[in-house]
Amino acid sequence: MTKLCVNIDHVATVRQARMTDQPDPVLAAQDAILGGADGITLHIREDRRHIQVSDLFKLKETIQAPLNLELAATPEMLAIAIEATPDMVMIVPEGRDEVTTEGGLDVLGDMQRLREFVNTLVEKNLCVSAFIDADFAQIEAAKSCGFTVCEIHTGPFAQAYMHNNRSLLNPLVLKERLKVENAVSSVLEMGMQCNAGHGLTHGNVSGIASIPNISELHIGHSIVSRSIFTGMRASVSEMKSEIQRARQ
Ligand code: PXP
User: Fold this and answer.
1) Cα 219 to ligand 1 centroid, rounded to whole Å
2) What is the pLDDT of residue 99?
3) Mean pLDDT of all residues in the chain?
4) Which among 141, 180, 185, 200 is placed 20 to 30 Å from 227, CA to CA?
């Protein structure tokens, strides 16, 4: 069964809007687990716009579920990952001016540097994932760099869904879904674990969750958004039900 890892960044976004101590992402993570989350994901950005390093260490002390840390491949983040030893280090591209992660990592264009970065983490017994577009050349490059997990970027699928009447049967949506499906097959054929995420919502998740053999979906904004109205547990539980229904 595909696991659901809940990204709690945007709980911290609300907190940082007032630089106060609420809402607490640690409490949100605990509630997400009570709602059925199989793991907790967080992204420490260079500009610390939401999650702070102190959140990471509090989560590490408190949370029993697997902890997945998203970060850019920089020396500062390498040191944080080595100290925190999360269950998975997820390398993502990062742009100062972007609202959210805008595209997959260009592994092909940065092979040597990424290979060294991944090797350093693997030597510390850390599992390392590459967030990449549904692109065969990038998948091959990730394998060659030593990544053992790829997370396929589902943003283009989510955009196609949003701009085409929120219909999972629209041909443009199906085209993006097929790209993800083919990418999942390639990742698995190369012997890596395949995860997926970005832009998934309670409305569109079934389009991706119905693809066989995706290990984990990483979902944040939609779950946190709905939790404002329903509470975190119910929001996670609804997402989990959507994923289970899609697989059935
Ligand atoms: N996966 C990766 C690599 C991400 O960078 C993000 C956003 O932080 C997500 C998944 C979750 O995306 P969303 O918040 O759109 O669900």
Assistant:
1) 6
2) 72
3) 96
4) 180
Q: Is the CB of 216 under 6 A from ligand 1?
A: no
Count of beta carbons in the 10 Å neighbourhood of residue 50? 22
> Are 46 and 73 spatial neighbours (Cβ–Cβ below 8 Å)?
no
Best residue among 100, 129, 149 to mutate for probing ligand 1's pocket (most ligand atoms within 8 Å of CB) is: 100
Spacing, Cα 158 to ligand 1 middle (Å)? 12
Sign of CA dihedral 83, 236, 32, 2: negative
Is omega for the bond preceding 23 within 30 degrees of 0, making it cis?
Answer: yes
- Helices 111-123 and 136-145 meet at what angle, rounded to 10? 50
**Predicted confidence band of residue 168 (pLDDT cuts 50, 70, 90):** very high
Which residues are known to be catalytic? 43, 70, 198
pLDDT class for 247, splitting at 50, 70, 90? confident
Atom of ligand 1 nearest to the CA of 158: 15
Looking from the CA of residue 101, the nearest atom of ligand 1 is 5
Residue 114 vs residues 67, 119, 145, 180: alpha-carbon distances, Å: 22, 8, 7, 23
State the average pLDDT over residues 212-240: 98
- The answer to whether the CB of 92 is under 6 A from ligand 1 is yes
Q: Which domains does the chain have, with CATH numbers?
A: 3-247 (3.20.20.70)
* pLDDT, average across residues 155-179: 98
* Whether the Cβ atoms of residue 238 and residue 25 lie closer than 8 Å to each other: no
